[in-house]
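Quick check before the chapter quiz. The format below is the same one you will see on the exam, so make sure you can read both the input and the output lines.
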Amino acid sequence: MYRYLRQVLQSLLAIPDRSSRHDGRPFDPRTPFTPPSGRYRNWAHYGVMVPGLPEPYRAFGLMSIVGTPGVEVFANDWAIRTTPRDTAYVVSGTNAMPGDTFASYSVQSECELAPDGSVVRFGTVAWDWTVLTRSHPRYSLKRSVGHVTVELEISATPTVTWFIDIPRFYQHWSLMCDYTGTITDGTRTTQISGLANVEYASGSGPNALPEAVAKHLTVPAEFFTYQVINLDGDSQLLLTQILVAGGGTLRTAYLRDRRGSRRITTGIGYAMGEPTTRTTPDGREMSLPGVWGWHVDGHASIRATGAADWRYGLGAGFVGSFDYTGEVAGRAVQGVGYVEHIDLR
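Here is the expected output.
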């Protein structure tokens, strides 16, 4: 029975992806930003990524998953609070935030999720909370951990990148945004501004099925990385690689500016070196790269050095920052990027 259900699940992954239809088109403000609801949307992701912050902060991220997708690389089963559907997983912080920036919450008792997506709040204690509000194209984010508080006022541009669009199964998109804000660190306040991402995903995973069946099903995936680079005040480079169990490798680059987003799926190379090992809270030994590089034929060449600020909580893996140099569209670039990395091989 379970083998048959796995085969059905794998066949669902072959449903045509319509994300390329959005390429070059401005964002539709009617696009949903709503929390999980019903069988076909039993999990959602809210994200904000801000690379290129001044030292010692480097990069900031909010990476949250409401509900449990049932994908191997995003599995945090040890952190389930009550049930998979009633658990929200959040990692959010900068290099300078104290202690652990990962937490899981009961959706019912420790979160506020407005049905229209206008308010998304995680946490109820005074020293550790996150709230994201939305009235598109305006977004506001406040994050506090210990003595550090990040406050962002975000204005979305029309530029959107659709990573995937499989109707009634999985949709995932990212907006290029302008932001201004502050980081208050004890008695010091730092003004910040630049480009950021606001991201949203929702879908239906195995937990849409009865719990007795769902616990035996996990969508196979062994490796995931997602990286965000602000090239200047008007353009970004997004890079991603996914390894599906069985050998399938998907690499994609997205070059985007205020005119739109361009998808590149061929001629992409990714190599990693100088690995270090970190232990996850559930005892898994995970390899993290010390250096890595991307080559996108005719478009970009990036050389990266990871920082020592890896923080657990992106599914089964880590988030962090990196220093990079390289060339994009024939011009030299350098700065600090944002990285997500999960390696279960």
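If your answer matched, good. The radius of gyration is 19 Å.
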